[in-house]
Structure formats: C-alpha cells, structure tokens
Design a protein that fits this description.
- It is built from eleven helices and nine strands.
- It has about 260 residues and is α+β, with helices and mostly antiparallel strands.
- The radius of gyration is 20 Å and the shape is globular.
- The relative contact order is 0.12.
C-alpha cells in the first residue's frame, strides 16, 4: 500500500504554496492507471479535464470534468484514467485551515460534488498559476478559497449514504446490460422512487441512468481491448440499442470513437 505525504502521483505542471494552501495541476496520460494508495493528508481534487474511474472499498465510480472530489485522510483508492486521460487540480490545506468547523465537516468524508461555479473558478486558478506579477498570489489565494467555500456550503446539510444504496448499486453492477425500472429499484430499496433518484444523484454525483451508461462503457471497453468482434455486436452485448447510440455515448465519456479506442488499445 502506497501512502503519499501531501503529494499526488505524477509530476505537477504547476505548483504554488500560498497562505496555508498547496495548489497544483497534474496531467495523466490516457489509458493509464494508479495503484491502490492512500494520502496522509486530506485534500480536494477538481477534475479539470478528461476523467477517470476510481475504485474504493470494492466499488467503482466514474468522475468527469467539473467534479470536485473530497479525499479525507487515509482514503484508499486506485484510479484508471479514460482514453482522453485527465488533468486534476489538487488543493492541500494546512492543519490550521483544515481544523475550522466548515472544513472539518467537508474533509471528514469522501464525497463527490458538482459545483455550479467551478468552471469559472478553475479558469481563474489556471490563469493565476501561470502569472508572475506580485498580485498573482493574492488572486490565486482568493480563487481557491472561493472554490473551498462553495464546497463547504454544499455540505452544510450533508446527505448521508443510506444502507439501501448498496442494494441498488449491487443490482446495477450484477448485470449492467439490463435496464431496471426506477420503480423496481425503489421497491428493492423500500423507498419512494423520487427519494431514490434524489439520494442516488446526491451521493454518487450522477443520475442512475448515467451511472448505468458508465458501467456499460466499461463492459464495452474491455471487449474492445480483448477481442476483434464487430463493434455493433459489442454494442448490443453491452446493452446499447444500436451501434450509433453506443458510439455517441462512448465518445461523450471517453473523448474518442470506439474504433479509435480499439486501434489505440
């Protein structure tokens, strides 16, 4: 088990330390993976481009551009990057900053957040990381703190992961090629369908439909790497209606067509 001390895998393209914050951006090549590891310090990771799948506690989750991941101290996970690769913005906080009530609450659990103002803040952070004038540190500090504040406000009333969520996730993972009705999943969880849809999105960061599509893309990716079967056949076997639907979903999630993905693999 690799334990990282206030650092991430890879070589950051930019790194700045300012007023209790360590801010860096790191690019990861497509179709690469990081082994299971943990961080000695809690940190925030904003997916600035591309995406990746994270395996934690035996469960795989997809994270795409614009999502903010909160990693508490000691959170164990492994990453596999999409064909497009990924670019990640990481923010580490000093113990003094992390001990404030709002940040203690934020950093206490692993969570995925989609923040409405994140893209604009990311653009500001990226710009200030490359600036060298004497106002750059001040501007960078302000933008990062604004990002942190948005995340804290999203967790003022945290959504607890209910025990029934594992039943729903197990059902989706058992056979991603099947499309269960929302009412069926709600009956399995013994909750109202509207409540199920809301809690699923709040805890997983995506809708049930998007989560299922991600599982199907993973199935198809494995088949594309390991066989020369026709793409149309792989699409149907993975649960897609036809090859054109499969190609649209696959490109939206990986950044390339199934044919190009197979050629690269």
């Amino acid at each position: 088990m690799h334990r990282l001390l206030r650092a991430n895998y890879g070589s950051p393209s930019h790194l700045r330390r300012i007023a209790g914050l360590q801010v860096s951006t790191t690019a990861y090549a497509g179709d690469t993976a990081l082994p299971m590891h943990e961080h000695a310090d809690p940190y925030l990771c904003l997916v600035a481009g591309g995406g990746y799948a994270q395996n934690a506690s035996g469960r795989s989750s997809d994270f795409r551009e614009g999502m903010l991941l909160v990693h508490p101290e000691g959170h164990r996970h492994a990453n596999r990057f999409s064909a497009r690769g990924a670019r990640c913005l990481s923010v580490y906080l000093s113990p003094e900053l992390a001990s404030t009530p709002a940040l203690t609450r934020l950093l206490g659990d692993h969570r995925q957040l989609r923040l409405r103002g994140a893209p604009a803040l990311l653009a500001r952070i990226d710009r200030e990381l490359t600036q060298t004038d004497d106002a750059a540190d001040l501007a960078l500090h302000a933008a990062v703190l604004e990002l942190i504040a948005l995340a804290c406000r999203r967790t003022e009333a945290p959504v607890r992961r209910p025990p029934w969520l594992d039943l729903v996730l197990d059902r989706l993972h058992d056979d991603p090629t099947l499309t269960p009705a929302l009412a069926e999943l709600a009956a399995l969880a013994d909750v109202d369908p509207t409540h199920l849809a809301r809690i699923f999105r709040a805890t997983q960061g995506v809708t049930i439909g998007d989560y299922l599509r991600g599982l199907r893309v993973e199935l198809a990716s494995t088949a594309l790497r390991g066989s020369r079967r026709p793409i149309a056949e792989i699409a149907l076997d993975a649960g897609f209606a036809d090859q054109s639907h499969f190609a649209r979903v696959f490109k939206a999630r990986t950044g390339q067509s199934p044919r190009h993905f197979r050629q690269r693999a």
